[in-house]
Structures are given as C-alpha cells and as structure tokens.
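User: Could you check the structure of this?
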Amino acid sequence: MSDNAKIVQGQLEAYNAQDLDAFCSFYADDAVLAGYGGEITNQGIASIRERHAKLFADFPQNTATVVNRIVVGSNVIDHEKVSRAPGGESFEVAPIYTLANGKIVRVDFVK
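Assistant: Sure, the predicted structure tokens are below.
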C-alpha cells in the first residue's frame, strides 16, 4: 500500500471510530473540502473539525466502507458506501483525496 493510501486509510479508520482528533490529524491546517466541480464547503481544519463533530454527534453509528480504491500519484480516489446507522439511510460517494507533504490537502466529493 502506498504512503498516500495509508494516510487515506488512516483517516477513514478514524472517521469510522468517530475519533475527531485522530481524523483531523490527517488533514493539513489549510485543507479544503469541496463538491466535485469546485464548490468549497469547508476551508481550514477548524471548519473541517466543526463539520465532523456535528456529523459524529448527529450520526453516532455512521460508517464508511471502501468499495474500491485507486491511487494515482498524489491522489487517492475512493468509492465508498456510507451508512448512517445499521438498517438506516445509506448512500455512495466518491471522494477524491489530494495529498501533499504527508497530509490531505483537499477532498472533492462526487455524489
């Protein structure tokens, strides 16, 4: 597994454990979350932390499972199935992670 894939896997495991500090440790201080096509939804680690603190509080059984992962240079593209709760709402998403200097610097979500 490439270093970039290990970083993305680590943040996914922290996400599934709802370990906010560990999750945020994989992101650069100035990281950006965006919709596919460029609409920025969160900018900076404080905004990312706030978003995920709310998500973890609202969906305490939320988990994401990787269906497929592609690594191309500094990008990791996952196809994930997200479940809000066992037997509850689920959906698929394709986050495109961009990494630099051992951190996630941008995630573009294809929904």
